[in-house]
Predict the structure of Polygalacturonase.
Amino acid sequence: MASRFLIPCISPLFLFYFFLAISSTQTNAFHDGQKVFDVRNYGARGDGKTNTYNALAFTKAWNDACQWSGGRSTVYIPAGKFYLDQITFSGPCKRHVTFTIRGTLLAPRILYADKRAEWIAFRYVDNLTVNGGGILDGQGSYSWRHLNDCDKNPNCRALAMNIGFSFVRSARVNGLRSINSKMGHFNLYAVENFNITRVKITAPGDSPNTDGIKIGRSKDMHISNVSIGTGDDCVAILDGTTNLDISNVRCGPGHGISVGSIGRFKEEKSIEGITVRNSVLKGTMNGLRIKTWAKSASENSVSKFLFEDIQMINVRNPIVIDQQYCPHNLCDSPGKYNSHVQIKDVKYTSIWGTSATQAALMLQCSKAFPCQGVELSDINLVYKGRNGSVTATCENVGGWVYGKIVPGDCRMR
Ligand SMILES: *[C@@H]1O[C@H](CO)[C@@H](O)[C@H](O)[C@H]1NC(C)=O
Ligand SMILES: *[C@@H]1O[C@H](CO)[C@@H](O)[C@H](O)[C@H]1NC(C)=O
Ligand SMILES: *[C@@H]1O[C@H](CO)[C@@H](O)[C@H](O)[C@H]1NC(C)=O
Ligand SMILES: *[C@@H]1O[C@H](CO)[C@@H](O)[C@H](O)[C@H]1NC(C)=O
């Protein structure tokens, strides 16, 4: 290297930084007591070009990090654009693994969810950190237009979501961006003690089925300081989710924060213990929505919810319980079926802002299983259209109203 001959004539301080720079690119260096497995040392190239080799290199780096028993290990992806085929990072691993993404990972332009639901999947790992501030680019624009009709067609062929975690425990995702997924962005299934912070998720407001974070069969989770703007739900909370705390979320555009749909299939499990607080929803279709299938096969419940300190900015339907959910005309006729999902102990408190339609509060509970213990307090939603003021619809709802409530015409049973 020519620069070596320059060393005698430059300052010691420069030398210090010079060696710091060199050592950080060394093969599998130790760093803060962690062993670092840099994907470049396995042959990965961050040149943005399509290749099949990167997936192999990433897999090898992961396997070495995962099997490293000398201490914590880090898989390191430096700056650059790394094209990456569909990939699975499987455990169990020997110790804590950190997966640091500094650069951009580029998905294949077309990728169906035939083999696996996600482009990048982590499975069976305990003690995992994913960080680095890098970008997952799902390149969804190549499939949204002509391949993704799952919003209209129940028998559609699903495309791969950006990233999935299943059977992962004690993990955190801290600092990551996910853009333009083909279908959903984050898919969490059967995770436990799992935290997501400082994550930014974006896709155009008119991109189909690009849910932000989907969660099912999971427990003990915290989602905080995230910003999500997509063409579908910001967060979708599906069956079997318990003890989930969501705070400091900015949501919009999109369909809002959704619970369900639940109740369609027999083997589904209840949803319990969900908190959403200190969040802002802006320009979304719904704000806080709970939806259960009208034609339901399961008798489970949705309970112990708290929605607190939420600002709505121009949200079409800020507060919704819909127990008549039945898309794709699967219910013969509207109103024919009554959901068997029991909704109980749901508290809405300190929710304010603007509604883009008059229908600011719609609680349409099941005739067969009326909602129980619904509590409304300090709600102030306004509508700025020329047609009048906000309205409330409350059907088959049992519970209480406290403090100032606008719209105030909700009669509880
Ligand atoms: C994960 O962390 C827990 C708690 O510190 C520890 O008991 C367990 O052995 C760790 N497992 C792995 C694979 O690192
Ligand atoms: C997740 O956050 C909660 C609350 O801050 C904390 O108690 C828990 O240890 C965190 N878990 C992980 C895996 O970081
Ligand atoms: C979230 O952001 C707030 C304000 O910037 C900060 O005080 C808090 O520590 C952050 N929480 C996490 C878990 O990053
Ligand atoms: C307002 O009322 C007019 C006349 O009834 C109706 O055509 C229009 O759709 C209404 N607009 C909204 C935003 O509800």
User: Anything to note?
Assistant: The chain has a mean pLDDT of 91.
